[in-house]
């Protein structure tokens, strides 16, 4: 495992609260944007790390803020707004945390804990700070609870209606899209006296009058659910990777500890893969390999009687500890994930494992429109540099492990979102959009900028300067105009 040290200046700023909300009609731009590039990069991420006297403990806890970079006729406009989730509104109104987060808890009563978990009642948080998606004409911000938050992609205001309700208490903010129907696919863990993983679909034709009811495709009994931040999808299967970081549902309800601190690392269980048929819901298990941990599936597909899946793999779940804010702000080491390919043989249930590149990578992106459920050649993401923390944009060619990178002194790029050029022939023909925290302060207060790179060679095309710093976030999507 390689570890690096996060620089204090970047992490101090990157994990500091942004309260300011602005709308800027035209950002200062250098370079030139491709003429075909039109639409909005929408991002969510934690931006408020204190509520009243209470300090958030973990990067994943911060109250969400939405950011919009809109590209039109070679210009870039920008807006940002706190996500008006019920978690946020309650915190604003009462001046304290009302809902529990990933690793910070407002000390609810035992009764409320049990009610939260087993009834799916009114006390679950909806601080959608992880990812967002477009479902039909709706834009939806998500976290790992069953309460997605719909928002307006122009004003970033939250809507009063829930677009759908997840059939379980825990889910992922990394849904997939069915490439034929455009419907959304995801899994949820339904906790209770008996627990199960549920695989479900939400149709894209939801309207405000008719929030969509998820259709449960399959269900799989589980005693101790694993923490799973994402899953894989092939043409035939949901692909579940159960890392041995698991929770006893009853302990989760009763322990009094914040959510993630109820999970236990049990390496003797190994890592288990399960395939769930997308048509019938039938599960095929029995694929097992050594213990490891990952947040992110990169892509999955079927090839020659095997299911192939790439993940950003850590040796264990220590990365969850690494991301406590106190550690990050102190510049403590952060583990680096390795791009790893698993080949699951449908014939004999064997699992082969192969490292695809030397350099570490996180927040991975592919050319999703072209390669979802199909073989991919390129993965883009962020990589820890010698100085520490995520300070590079990386492109990996999985056929030979060759890498290209972009880096600039004192600049810390976030997830690079790939946008394909219309009519593109090649998988890497397009641009990458990344929000970069620039901590240089010679002439002005540190702030962030939108960086636009050529996705093929990582050369810079343009950058548009935001009027303030944007705290380190997780994920975003590009919505074409
Ligand atoms: Fe994620």
Describe the overall structure:
The chain is built from seven helices and 37 strands. With 481 residues, it is mainly beta. The chain has a single domain, classed as Methylamine Dehydrogenase, Chain H. The longest helix is centred in the first third of the chain and has 10 residues. The relative contact order is 0.16. The N terminus is likely disordered. The site of fe (ii) ion has 7 residues, from strand 23. Fe (ii) ion binds next to strand 23.
Structural shape: globular
Number of strands: 37
The small molecules bound here are: fe (ii) ion
CATH H-level name... which superfamily?
A: YVTN repeat-like/Quinoprotein amine dehydrogenase
Runs with pLDDT <50, length 5+? 1-7
Tally of structural domains: 1
Largest sheet geometry: 6 strands, antiparallel
What is the helix fraction of residues, given as a range? under 10%
CATH architect. name: 7 Propeller
Give the DSSP E fraction (strand runs of 2 or more residues): 35-45%
Number of helices: 7
Distance between the termini: 42 Å
| Gyration radius, in Å | 21 Å
Mean model confidence by pLDDT? 91
CATH class: Mainly Beta
- The secondary structure category is mainly beta
CATH fold group: Methylamine Dehydrogenase, Chain H
Kindly summarize this structure in a few lines.
The protein contains 7 helices and 37 strands. The chain is mainly beta and 481 residues long.
């Amino acid at each position: 495992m390689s570890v690096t040290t996060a620089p204090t200046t970047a992490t101090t700023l990157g994990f500091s609260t942004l309260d300011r909300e602005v709308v800027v009609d035209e950002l200062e731009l250098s370079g030139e944007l491709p003429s075909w590039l039109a639409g909005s990069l929408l991002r969510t991420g934690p931006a408020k790390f204190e509520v009243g006297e209470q300090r958030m403990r973990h990067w994943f806890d911060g109250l969400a803020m939405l950011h919009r970079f809109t590209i039109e006729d070679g210009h870039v406009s920008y807006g940002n707004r706190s996500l008006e989730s019920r978690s946020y509104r309650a915190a604003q109104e009462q001046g304290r945390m009302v809902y529990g987060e990933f690793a910070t808890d407002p000390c609810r009563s035992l009764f409320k804990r049990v009610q939260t978990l087993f009834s799916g009642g009114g006390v679950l948080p909806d601080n959608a700070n992880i990812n967002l998606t477009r479902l039909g004409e709706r834009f939806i911000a998500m976290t790992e609870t069953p309460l997605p938050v719909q928002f307006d992609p122009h004003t970033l205001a939250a809507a009063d209606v829930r677009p759908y309700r997840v059939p379980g208490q825990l889910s992922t903010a990394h849904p997939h899209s069915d490439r034929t129907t455009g419907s959304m696919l995801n899994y949820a863990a339904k906790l209770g006296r008996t627990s199960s993983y549920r695989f479900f679909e939400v149709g894209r034709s939801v309207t405000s009058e008719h929030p969509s009811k998820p259709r449960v495709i399959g269900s799989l009994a589980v005693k101790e659910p694993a923490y799973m931040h994402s899953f894989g999808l092939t043409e035939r299967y949901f692909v579940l990777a159960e890392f041995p970081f698991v929770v006893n549902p009853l302990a989760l309800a009763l322990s009094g500890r914040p959510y993630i601190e109820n999970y236990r690392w049990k390496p003797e269980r190994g890592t288990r893969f399960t395939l769930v048929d997308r048509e019938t819901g039938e599960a095929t298990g029995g694929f097992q390999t050594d213990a490891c941990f990952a947040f992110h599936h990169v892509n999955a597909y079927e090839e020659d009687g095997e299911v192939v899946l790439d993940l950003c793999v850590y040796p264990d779940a220590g990365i969850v500890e690494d991301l406590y804010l106190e550690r990050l702000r102190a510049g403590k080491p952060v583990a680096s994930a390795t791009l790893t390919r698993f080949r699951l043989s449908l014939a004999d249930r064997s699992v082969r494992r192969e490292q695809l590149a030397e350099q570490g990578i996180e927040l991975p992106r592919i050319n999703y429109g072209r390669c979802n459920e199909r073989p991919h050649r390129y993965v883009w993401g962020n990589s820890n540099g010698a100085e520490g923390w995520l300070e590079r944009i990386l492109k990996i060619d999985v056929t030979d492990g060759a890498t290209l990178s972009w880096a600039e002194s004192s600049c810390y790029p976030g997830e690079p979102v790939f946008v394909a050029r219309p009519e593109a022939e090649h998988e890497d023909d397009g641009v990458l959009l990344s929000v970069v925290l620039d901590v240089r302060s010679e002439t002005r207060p540190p702030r962030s900028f939108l960086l636009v790179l050529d996705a093929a060679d990582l050369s810079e095309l343009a950058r548009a300067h935001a009027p303030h710093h944007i705290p380190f976030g997780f994920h975003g999507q590009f919505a074409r105009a």
